[in-house]
Automatic annotation (TrEMBL):
Pfam families: Pyr_redox_2. This is NAD(P)/FAD-dependent oxidoreductase. Transmembrane segments: none annotated. Belongs to the NADH dehydrogenase family. The lineage of its organism: Bacteria, Bacillati, Actinomycetota, Actinomycetes, Kitasatosporales. Keywords: FAD, Flavoprotein, NAD, Oxidoreductase. GO terms for molecular function: oxidoreductase activity. Residues 449-474 are annotated as: Disordered. It comes from the Bacteria. Residues 18-353 form the FAD/NAD(P)-binding domain. The keyword Nucleotide-binding does not apply. It comes from Streptomyces aureus.
Length: 474
């Protein structure tokens, strides 16, 4: 029991160490989870506090986004509620705006900030974990901001699914050949994991859905993949990359290598090879960049804007600051090559988080730290139902075996037994029953019907009070 002050009869205030975790993605959630496990006595006694500030109250398991878009998994099963998993942490739904590590302070806004009118909130900390992840890397392509669709969040994945099905409805009901052609043309920009897997899964879903339309066939659909380099899926190796191109082209998907999107103004995708495609769907998956909050800190960054970190996942030259994942440039000590960094992918992020949690706990207790060392095991990618490619431990797989390995691997990696069981049950049910091909696009504007009934704006017109988006902005 703590000693009491006999003169006042109260217990003296116990010094508390606050660990501030910025971000609730792979690194943020797994680091906080690891700290919960390693610092149980300190958390129980109140000597340590873990605060997680994140824009969303959940962690999104992004490898499952393509299957969520295709309807193989329910959206709620690709996210992990942070408050349930991080029961010993204080979770704040907000967005960090700046960090002053010299003063050990960070400022952030919450959903209530605008209502209160008090401005950003300041929080002090003793240890900082900066893991805000990354954002989509866009280029100044004319029309992209107006017509482009991202594929990084669960909201975007489900919105894209609804959008694709709605295009089939438009094509089925219009009498204008130009509108029909634009509705059935789908352009994906970016040949990495996100672009190829999203294209493969959605093409598979749309091909199946077309069978339920009396005047739309799978052959009417036009799918185009645009990639600036000379290969796609570089993570699975050159041979598997070539196989993926062949497999996609066998499905009548137009794969354009060494090609860039120049414009998508007026719903026309213009490529630098002179091709023009009237389209209502341009999906942008051409890479990511570090989160903008990194530029609003006084921490050292490299030329790409990522935190300069040591092999122990500490920010180089900034004591008590830590980083991992997409936001951090972590040296790959297993590569045997000077200056080599770990790839910013989920495979490294999850493993880095475990080491990061251990090192923070060790630092607080004055124990030695551990270097992060993990040899890249390989990659797996899904190209649709029962189709995939894999390059794991030097072995190359394609078709059904690769697809099966993709599912097994990610099922083993998705957090919590609860989510594993729910995902597995949905896969089993989807194998026994047919796909669901219903568009719920009206969810994006749930008040439309009531506004019309109340004499407001009719559906399809801009609402008088735009609904708040999932991030809390208007």
């Amino acid at each position: 029991m703590p000693k009491t002050d006999s003169s006042r009869g109260t217990a003296p205030e116990v010094p508390r160490t606050r660990v501030l975790v910025v971000g609730g993605g792979y690194v943020g959630m797994y680091t906080a989870l690891r700290l919960q496990q390693k610092l149980k006595p300190e958390l129980r006694s109140g000597r340590t506090e873990i605060v997680v500030v994140t824009p969303d109250p959940y962690m999104t398991y992004q490898p499952f986004l393509p299957e969520a878009a295709a309807g193989s998994i329910s959206p709620r099963h690709v996210v992990v509620p942070l408050r349930r998993v991080l029961g010993r942490c204080r979770v704040i739904v907000g967005e960090v705006k700046s960090v002053d590590h010299s003063k050990r302070t960070a400022t952030f806004t919450t959903l209530a900030t605008e209502e209160e009118g008090t401005g950003a909130v300041e929080i002090t900390y003793d240890e900082l974990v900066l893991a805000p992840g990354s954002v989509s890397r866009t280029l100044p392509v004319p029309g992209l901001a107006d017509h482009g669709i991202g594929f990084k969040t669960v909201e975007e994945a489900i919105g894209l699914r609804n959008h694709v099905i709605e295009q089939l409805d438009i094509a089925s009901s219009t009498r204008d050949p130009a509108i029909r052609d634009a509705a059935l043309t789908f352009v994906f920009v970016g040949g990495g994991y996100a672009g190829v897997e999203a294209l493969g899964e959605l093409e598979d879903m749309a091909r199946y859905a077309a069978g339920y339309y009396h005047n739309v066939t799978a052959d009417d659909l036009k799918w185009i993949l645009v990639e600036a380099s000379d290969r796609i899926l570089p993570e699975v190796g050159e041979e598997m990359g070539r196989y993926t191109v062949s497999e996609l082209r066998r499905r009548n998907i137009d794969v354009r290598l060494r090609t860039r999107l120049e414009s998508c103004e007026d719903r026309v995708a213009v490529l630098d090879d002179g091709s023009r495609f009237p389209t209502r769907t341009v999906v942008w998956t051409a890479g990511v960049k570090p989160h903008p909050v990194l530029a609003a800190t006084d921490l050292p960054r490299n030329e790409r804007g990522r935190l300069k970190c040591t092999a122990q996942l500490a920010v180089d030259g900034a004591p008590h600051a830590w980083g991992a994942g997409d936001a951090a440039a972590v040296p790959d000590i297993t590569a045997g090559e000077e200056g080599k960094e770990c790839a910013p992918n989920a495979q490294h992020a999850v493993r880095q988080a475990r080491v990061l949690g251990d090192n923070i706990a060790a630092s607080l207790r004055g124990e030695p730290l551990t270097d992060y060392a993990h040899e890249y095991a390989g990659s797996v990618a899904s190209l649709g139902l029962h189709k995939g490619v894999a390059h794991v431990y030097g072995r190359r797989l394609k078709g059904y075996p690769a697809w099966f390995m993709h599912r097994v691997y990610h099922l083993s990696r998705v957090p919590t037994v609860n989510r594993k069981a729910r995902v597995l049950s949905e896969w089993i049910l989807s194998g026994l029953f047919k796909r669901e091909i219903v568009s719920l696009g009206s969810l994006e504007r749930p008040r439309a019907e009531f506004e019309l009934a109340a004499g407001g704006n009719p559906p399809g017109s801009p609402p008088s009070h735009p609904p708040r988006d999932p991030k809390g902005s208007t």
